[in-house]
């Protein structure tokens, strides 16, 4: 079973390591752990994200579903701080903040960012923390 000392690992494609590093480190505030000729490894909000260099040109995302990733924040202030950071640093939004499942127990706010390769990152905050899973 995973403990709080374990780290989730996700590998995604990138078409430009410099652009990926600029997006994830400089704009989003992630920590660069390692950089090689073919990948960068990041501390993505406490988990490990690896951006692997992939040949070809970035494709515009067609839909949020089924492929996206991100963070569900326990604290509303963390959600709001990241949103403010994205606005200030002019990070491209795929979807601006919206309210989903309004009036239901699973009500939450969400926004979606687009990285330079077209990977979609969704960030959420549920009013009821029991709905995080």
From TrEMBL:
Coiled coil: none
Species this chain originates from: Trebonia kvetii
SUPFAM superfamilies: Glyoxalase/Bleomycin resistance protein/Dihydroxybiphenyl dioxygenase
Source organism phylogeny: Bacteria, Bacillati, Actinomycetota, Actinomycetes, Streptosporangiales
Protein name per its UniProtKB record: Glyoxalase
Chain ranges of the VOC domain: 6-126
One Pfam family recorded for the sequence: Glyoxalase
InterPro entries: Glyas_Bleomycin-R_OHBP_Dase, Glyas_Fos-R_dOase_dom, VOC_core
Superkingdom of origin: Bacteria
């Amino acid at each position: 079973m995973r403990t709080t000392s374990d780290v989730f690992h996700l590998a995604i494609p990138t078409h430009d390591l410099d652009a990926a590093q600029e997006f994830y480190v400089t704009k989003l505030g992630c920590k660069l752990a390692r950089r090689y000729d073919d990948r960068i490894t990041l501390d993505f909000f406490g988990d490990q994200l690896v951006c692997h260099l992939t040949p070809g040109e970035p494709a515009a995302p067609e839909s949020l579903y089924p492929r996206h990733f991100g963070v569900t924040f326990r604290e509303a202030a963390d959600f709001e701080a990241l949103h403010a950071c994205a606005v200030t640093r002019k990070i491209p939004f795929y979807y601006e903040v919206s309210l989903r499942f309004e009036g239901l127990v699973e009500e939450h706010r969400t926004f979606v960012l687009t990285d330079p390769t077209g990977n979609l990152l969704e960030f959420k905050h549920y009013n009821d923390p029991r709905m995080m899973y």
